[in-house]
Amino acid sequence: MREQSYTSQLRKAGFVEPARCASLLDDPALAGMEIGSFLADFHEVADPDQCLLALIRLAEACQEAEHSKALASLLGDSRSRRELFGLLGMSTMLGDFLISHPDRLKDVFAPGPRGACGIPRGDQADERASALTAVGANPSDAYPVSTEPDAINALRAHYFTRIARVAAADLTCPDPLEAMPEVSARITDIVGGALEAGLAYARSEVEGSEHVALTVIAMGKTGARELNYVSDVDVVYVASPTDDSVDESQAMSLAAKLAAKLGQAVSAPAGEQALWMLDANLRPEGKDGPLVRTLESHVAYYKRWAKGWEFQALLKARPAAGDMALGQRYIDTLWPEVWEAASREHFVEDSRAMRRRVEAHVPHREEGRQLKLGKGGLRDIEFTVQLLQLVHGRSDDTLRTRSTLDSIAALRDGGYIARKDADLLDHDYRLLRTLEHRIQLQRLRRSHLVPSGEAELRRVARAMHCEGITTGPEIDRVWQETRSEVRRLHQAIYYRPLLPEAAKLSPDDISLDQDAAKARLASMGYLDPGGAINHISALTSGVSRTASIQRQLLPVMLGWFAAGPEPDRGLLAFRVLSEKMGRTSWYLRTLRDGGAAAERLCLLLSSSRYLAQNVPDLPESVGWLVDKKDLQPRTRAELDAELASTIARRTSAEDIANAGRYMRRRELLRTAMGQVLGVVDAVASRAAVSRAAEIAISAGLTGAVRAACEAAHISGPVSRYSVIAMGRLGGAEMGYASDADVIFVHDPLAGADEEEAQRVAVDVATRLSRLMGSLSGEPQIPVDYDLRPEGRNGRLTRSLAAYAEYYERWADPWEYQALLRARPIAGDAELGSEFISLIDPYRYPQRGLEPAKIREIQRIKARVETERIPRGISVQRHLKLGRGGLSDVEWTAQLLQLEKAGTYESLRVTSTLEVLAACEKAGILTSEQAEHLSEAWNMASLLRDMNFIGTGRSQGTKIDVLPHDLTDLGVVAALLGFESSQRLDVEEEYLRAARRARAVVEDVFYAQAREVKER
Which parts of the sequence belong to the PII-uridylyltransferase/Glutamine-synthetase adenylyltransferase domain (predicted)? Predict the structure, then answer.
């Protein structure tokens, strides 16, 4: 019955074979120990079955009274008992060590001071003294020599005793992630003691060793005091003669023998298991270089021959054993060289290439289980941290730390990594290292693979004691989630575009010293270096996190501003933007972490006065720079849905209209940013600008209808309303500075009084114009009704029936021509379609135009050419009305439509470019003629847009004129992709394109007029 009761308890405790283990409780070796009262302690054990079997073997080994008493004492103390069970249930190797060395039980579980996490306290000095004493060496000697006859086995037994003591506490601590750094530091100190003791053994074996000083320089994890339970110990040896009895060559020979004997002490076959391999491959020239060098030889190599990765390896260098004074001179001499390595050509690119090579060499079968080298593993974190340290540590001493966790904290505190990202990296590093420790403890073998076997996974999971992990599937889930998170952070931080640029900076660039900066800024193209320095000082002064991040960004951004035509203006705009954003967390985080966002922002602000003025007024636009897809124009459906949601919360006509005008301002800014960065082409930008106007007018119409009904004291509209786009808006070809040409149509509802309907419709149209042109709130969008019947003298709006009567009886040719671009954009969609059906026969006449009407169009065109170009403006340079300009091309395309669209349905489109393409396809224009017209029209449109974007002017004749001013021309040329030395080429290219287009206009427009006249 007792065995059945135990079986139930053992099953609950996690035993895999509870029945078998229940029978073992009666083993004679356990007699008198009352193991049954300790069964609850097995709940926390990684492998209870293994633990019980090892305990029986340990009890059998403790036959001597002294050992038996020690074991009984351990079992009687709750902490010691839990630690013993934890150790036996996780590590077969350390369990076997205790079984074969029962005399070590007292040392492993000896009382003593503990840290906050329960890990035994100690330091490097304690471990050194303890290890030297174990091999019979005097810790006080300058060069201790072992007197222990069996020094190697004594050293190893002492080492495993100390490791078992740390492991027992680690396996039972309440928070293993918190304890991980302390555990690694203690392991490293124990390794340091072993190195010192091994060196003492070596001196006992090498005759004449007193004539040479040898220092063991710890590298990698050993140097950073973050070793695993089992790691190769990376070292570099430095030596020097201690007296004149040997020359340098003899001293190096003696030192090499000492290093070889040290290697034997820790890794050669002996009675006790080997500790670990001493890896000296990080020395100068690697395996091909001499094992030991003098300090002078090391320095000469690093100054002349070392590659970037070798300096990265030195980042964690630390004297670990031997002559510490010599070791400190080594560090003092080479440490400054580490922080200059990042300035070497292609340093960042080479570091990244090395990381990719490491990833590529991970065997495919291990890819999903590789904790250390694979994607999302420890190396991702370590490479990320080390690269940021090396790039930014040149100017920031706080980053000159060795341990990964200390470095993450320094990068966080200095603003180089976002707090959230740093916290994630810290947590993930601790988790992966803890998981690595648990995997290695089983057999105390070097391994970085997450187990695939069910039994091994279960054992590791039960030993984790964190993240809610208790089973194999849970540990696999946490590992995969952590791996994914680490990889994401690595790619976001390690591949920042900022890093290669920051690495290229000289010390003067980084320091932002005023005297050095003035000369540099002037040489880069800043016209007012003093003013630029004032901006820099304002942005970087102080000790706030914001100022710290600005100090990282600005040395690089100054060069990016200089890539634009107006770096001074760009820097000023950046200051305005930064001051407006204050300490908004996402803003600087976006510039630091947001891929190419910072470089894109610099280019925008220094290339476009419009953007320099408007980006600070809409700071959210900075967020669009992270992903280019956010710079793509929004569709009309997306804008309509947003508008509907926005105006649902507004009641006044002004608020509703301003909602639409805000959306227009935002979309104009988005489109201009996309166009400058090459994300949006000219055709797409014109369509986007047109949609922005449409959404503003749509919002204005909603507000105007609501206000007009309230003014008329009616509950709702008495007509259907539709806004018909005309001109460039109708063709979806608006420029940034274009007015919105529209006509207004209404249709009284059934039973409505027509006079009242007309009055309300006029009020709606009037209010729409006022709402769009109001100076309050968002930027204006002038609504122009001049293309309505009878022009400025005609009624502001007509009913659908009135329009039908007018176009049938009184319309002039220019009005038919204007209708070619008519397109409904707001209001009642059905009414808009009815209007289009009404006008199609007039704008697409089946037999073309009568000769008189063609002559009238020709006459109007000639008058426009002679009367509307402002005085003092060269006819060749006016982009809209000049020869070969927009008007020439558009009138030609429209005349061809009036003549041919009745026959060719493909010409029934509102876009000028689409008309030209259709004419070419139908054989109405030759390919060369269509190409010349399209090229001139495209370039003139683009120049008008770049005039607006580049100079920031939204009004005046200069928008329509090819710039004369060299500064303005340079800005426009840069936006078009010309080098600064080629800005005059812009003039030549446009004038040549305009001449070709004018020749086509002469051949087609006027020839068409003559042909009609002859008919």
Answer: 352-492, 872-1004
Dist CA 324 CA 144 (whole Å): 13
Query: What size, in residues, is the chain?
Result: 1015
- What is the predicted pLDDT for the residue at 512? 55
pTM for this prediction: 0.82
CA atoms of 412 and 549, how far apart (whole Å): 11
Quick check: helix, strand or coil at residue 271? coil
Confidence of residue 9 (pLDDT cuts 50, 70, 90): confident
CA distance 55 to 53: 5
Residue 475 pLDDT > 70: yes
In tens, the pLDDT along 24-77 reads 888 888 887 878 788 889 999 999 999 999 999 999 999 888 899 999 999 999
Distance CA 382, CA 380 (A): 6
Q: How do residues 526-573 score in pLDDT, each as one tens digit?
A: 999 999 989 988 988 888 888 888 888 888 898 899 988 999 999 999
- Kindly list the distances between the CA atom of residue 156 and the CA atoms of 128, 260, 279, 443, 858, in Å, as whole numbers in the listed order: 14, 17, 18, 16, 105
Burial 731-750 (b: 16+ CB within 10 A, else e): bbbbbbbbbbbbbbbbbbee
> Directed axis angle between helix 653-676 and helix 636-647, to 10°?
150
Nearest to 155 by CA among 127, 183, 188: 127
* Phi and psi at residue 869, to the nearest 5°: -75, 125
CB atoms within 10 A of CB 716: 8
What the chain holds in terms of domains, given with CATH numbers, is: 347-502 (1.20.120.330), 505-617 (no CATH), 627-843 (3.30.460.10), 851-1014 (1.20.120.330)
pLDDT in tens, 821-842: 999 999 999 999 999 999 999 9
Residues 6+ apart with CB under 8 A from 560: 501, 598, 599, 602, 603, 606
Spell out the alpha helix ranges (H) of 290-377.
295-304, 308-314, 324-338, 347-360
CA dihedral of residues 474, 477, 479, 480 (deg, nearest 10): 170
- Tell me, letter by letter, the H, E, C secondary structure of 829-894: HHHHHHHHHHHHHHHCCCCCCCHHHHHHHHHHHHHHHHHCCCCCCCCCCECCCCCCCHHHHHHHHH
- Measured CA to CA, the distance from residue 916 to residue 656 in angstroms comes to 39
- The one-letter amino acid code at 992 reads R
- Write out pLDDT tens, residues 525-536: 899 999 998 998
pLDDT at 874: 80
Contacts of 245 (CB under 8 A, 6+ apart): 211
What is the tens place of the pLDDT at every residue in 492-519? 888 887 788 777 777 666 665 667 678 7
Give 772-818 pLDDT, tens digit per residue: 998 877 899 989 999 999 888 889 999 999 999 999 999 988 899 99
Please answer whether residues 863 and 945 qualify as being in contact, where contact means their C-beta atoms are separated by less than 8 angstroms.
no
Q: Give the residue carrying structure tokens 């010390």.
A: 507
Helices and strands counted in the chain (H then E): 45, 10
968 vs 610: CA distance, rounded Å:
13
What are phi and psi for residue 15, nearest 5 degrees?
-70, 140
Give the Cβ contact number of residue 473 at 10 Å.
Answer: 13
**Pairing of β 797-799 and β 740-748:** parallel
| Rounded CA separation 915/902 (Å) | 13
Residues forming a β-bridge with 319: 217
Rg of the chain's alpha carbons, rounded to an integer?
Answer: 41
Using a 10 angstrom Cβ sphere, with 0-12 exposed, 13-18 middle and 19 or more buried, the burial of residue 273 is middle
